[in-house]
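Anyone able to model this chain together with flavin mononucleotide?
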Amino acid sequence: MVKILAFAGSGRKNSVNKKVVAVAAKGAEEAGAVVTIVNLEDYDLPIFNEDLEAEQGMPVAAQAFKELLINHDGFLISSPEYNSSYSSLFKNAIDWASRKSSDEAPMAAYRGKVAAIMAASPGALGGIRVLVTLRMLLENIGTMVLPSQKAVGGAFKLFDEQGNVTDEKTEKALKSLGKELAETLTKLKVKLS
Ligand SMILES: Cc1cc2nc3c(=O)[nH]c(=O)nc-3n(C[C@H](O)[C@H](O)[C@H](O)COP(=O)(O)O)c2cc1C
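re: yes, here you go
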């Protein structure tokens, strides 16, 4: 059984990226994965600062988020595009979880993990530019990123009030990405064991 952590890079209550990642999570579950969905805004993380870290150590919330990453095989991530890149909320969480405690291997939260990435935006391009920066970041910290990805354009029009996707083509593409991650992780586990 593979374990996938799913989250969006937006803390907004009505975030379309949260809705998008939830659809992909369903696809992964239908393919047999166990998926945990978390909201980054639930982790009370100060802006990362090495002085703060030296004085106070890792915040409890940062440790909790890092442990969640460590305890999952792969990640489903949907990111908003802010000025062509990812949000500071997302990068701050990634930076905190990259910090090593004495008994851990370096980059324990990221190395050997596999991610599938998505973006959603009300704009026509769906945040396609953030996927370039997101892929680069994740690969650089040791997480393999599936070649398949999805940018969801016109995203404000694709969900009903309950957050259900109303466009069949988008639903199929997102579920298929979740399924591909689950199946890839399953194959890797079989090979390694
Ligand atoms: C600071 C800022 C920068 C943004 N830059 C972009 C951008 O470069 N491309 C884009 O498609 N949308 C951009 N947007 C609009 C976001 O796509 C939109 O706010 C979206 O709803 C954010 O995702 P969420 O619904 O998951 O919070 C920007 C929004 C903010 C607040």
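Residues 2 and 189 are 8 Å apart (CA to CA).
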